[in-house]
Design brief:
By secondary structure, this protein is an alpha/beta fold. It is built from 10 helices and 8 strands. It has one domain: Aminopeptidase (3-Layer(aba) Sandwich), CATH 3.40.630. An 8-stranded mixed beta sheet has the order 1-2-4-3-5-8-6-7, with helices on both faces. Helix 3 (44-58) runs parallel beside helix 5 (114-122) and helix 5 packs across helix 10.
Amino acid sequence: MWQRVFLLFAMLAVVTGAPAQSIHFTQVPKDVVEQRLHEVKKDNVEREATLKRMLAEAGCDPAALTELPVKHEKIPNVVCIMKGSSDSVILVGAHSDHVKNGEGAADNWSGAAMLPSLLQSLLKTPRKHTYVFIGFTAEEKGLVGSDAYTHDLSKEDRAKILAMVDIDTLGLSPTKVWASRADKKLLGELMRVATSMKLPLQAMNADQVGAADSFSFDKYKIPTIAIHSITQQTFSILHSDKDTLAAVHMDEYYDTYRLLAVYLADLDNVLP
């Protein structure tokens, strides 16, 4: 597998004009990624507990796996920190809560359940950057969990976050990116990775219809990018009884996982 990944990024070097670099990651099997998605729970307390357990099972160091209380909320944010050789941070976030209608399988257990697989993809290789994986609470109440997280950071700690990758509502269609709000460098790198892997990626903006946890980081001028799968055709699934596992296309969901696993490993090379 390592040889395949190295050749992939030799191709990426041709696309970008940058020097070839070997990108190491572990590709989690499709059945494991799907099984984590199938652990969806309707109760938000159970969802947070399940995510915490899955992060631990995926290899998060128990000392680095914590719950951060959020004022006025019963459910905390759950955080796993994967230390790198520097304290510069690449942060990957997804909210774990959902509204009462449906299972919330797409919105947003699909994002939360992918965090353990992305962690597992990166663990075996020493990294320059510190990766922080966060399951945010109470996004559906108005970005409460992500607002609390960014508010509680010191100015110095906010400055250490070089990228915030938000994953929300995956597998309803091939991978989409909220391009109008994305940091240009992060967006350009994602496009290059998708091109090199021959995976679909389309710009689909939701400027008039939604908000995402990345907004909480935008307020502090932290570079962000939001990955999703929402289209005009699939938007009606959100917050409805149609938001079930049956709505998630597993092949497209796994393609998004593959793209993000390589993208996150790539960011370790291209960010300062």
